[in-house]
Specification:
This protein has a 6-stranded parallel β-sheet with strand order 7-6-5-8-9-10, with helices on both faces. It has a 4-stranded parallel β-sheet with strand order 1-2-3-4, sandwiched between helices. Helix content is 50%, strand content 11%. It is of the alpha/beta class. It is globular, with a radius of gyration of 22 Å. The model has no long low-confidence stretch (mean pLDDT 91).
Length: 343
């Protein structure tokens, strides 16, 4: 995806020959040793030609050769871990890089254990604690600019979507391609929601849009979109939000400060979306429904939450406490500090 998207924003992009380890189909790893060797060679020449002041990674197997080579060449390195449970690549790189920016305290704990495993705690405890506090920094995740200027003007937002200003409203976010479980649950439970006078702003994603839009085209209280460009207005219009538990989505939900029902995707590496959701649930900052339980529970949970003003208030207050609106500034400050140290 990056090969197509990055050039659209005016940046050049280089690819390297590498892939992740296939856990389920072991035979597909036969070329992996060769790919690793070649990817390190490619990384070396990319770095030598580009001459970066710093190399930054956000996880994923493609970042490993570049960051490892940069560390070998004594170029400052930084990784930004977006999830509450670090991915395999970032865990491998933790000992090598100069700085680790995390979005969750849980991720900081994991990295701390990884790094501390290599030291003698009895003799270096104080030194290591200071070192770790400087190396691992809780920054949060950067979020889109329009989210940062989110204004909770519910009446104007509902007018924008041509909805009744007084009726309870939910925002359903199916992702860019569509979260099939969420979409199916809403599709099958629409009439139950409408009987409760609940309005729906529904981002279906590409794969479910035709089915939903054709079915509910003439419904005044259901607004179906393949993708919502004015997402800040959708957040403002909503009483509660339903969506997946991706790292950036959760960071946005925190900044918005609305009650959220999370349905983590089961189809992600190391089940990190469930761990992201659990990090909020333990702080009473969100509700979570397992993907396989959503068809039976999601609609009833929506209705129950809509009707529970006390719980809505608690969830909204607690999720907003977890927001890191200055995440971008915090991360860039760490980047500039690393560069200045070298200078």
């Amino acid at each position: 995806m990056e090969i197509k998207k990055v050039p659209q924003y005016g940046y050049k992009i280089k690819s390297i020959w590498i892939s992740g380890f296939q856990r389920k189909k072991i035979f597909k790893n036969i070329l992996l040793p060769l790919k690793i060797i070649i990817s390190f060679i490619q990384a070396y020449f990319i770095i030598k030609k580009f001459k970066p002041n710093i190399v930054i990674g956000t996880g994923g197997f493609a970042s490993a050769p570049i960051l490892q080579m940069a560390a070998n060449l004594k170029i400052p390195t930084l990784i930004q871990e977006q999830n509450s449970w670090p991915g395999a690549t970032n865990k491998i790189l933790a000992k090598k890089v100069d700085k680790i920016c995390v979005a969750y305290p849980e991720a900081a704990d994991v990295f701390t254990r990884i790094i501390m495993n290599r030291v003698n705690l009895s003799s270096k405890l104080k030194i290591d604690k200071k070192y770790l506090s400087q190396k691992i920094v809780l920054t949060g995740n950067p979020v889109r600019k329009e989210i940062m200027f989110f204004q909770n003007n519910t009446i104007e937002a509902r007018k924008y979507f041509q909805l009744n200003i007084d009726n309870p409203t939910i925002l359903v976010i199916g992702g860019s391609l569509g979260a099939l479980t969420i979409n199916n649950a809403i599709f099958k439970g629409v009439h139950i929601l409408l009987n409760k006078n609940i309005q729906i702003i529904w981002q279906t994603g590409a794969n479910f849009y035709k089915q939903a839009s054709e079915t509910f085209n003439n419904f005044d209280n259901i607004k179906v979109f393949q993708f919502i460009n004015e997402i800040d207005k959708a957040y403002a219009a909503a009483d509660i939000i339903i969506g997946r538990a991706g790292a950036i989505s959760i960071s946005e939900f925190c900044c918005v400060g609305k009650p959220v029902i999370l349905v983590p995707s089961p189809n992600v590496a190391e089940n990190h979306q469930t761990k992201n959701a659990e990090a909020l649930v333990k702080n009473n900052a969100a509700l979570m429904i397992a993907d396989n339980e959503a068809p039976q529970k999601l609609v009833n949970t929506i209705i129950s939450l809509i009707e529970n003003d006390i719980l809505k208030k608690q969830l909204a207050e607690n999720i907003y406490k977890l927001a890191k609106p200055d995440a971008t500034e915090l991360i860039t400050n760490e980047i500039f500090t690393l560069i200045n140290i070298v200078k």
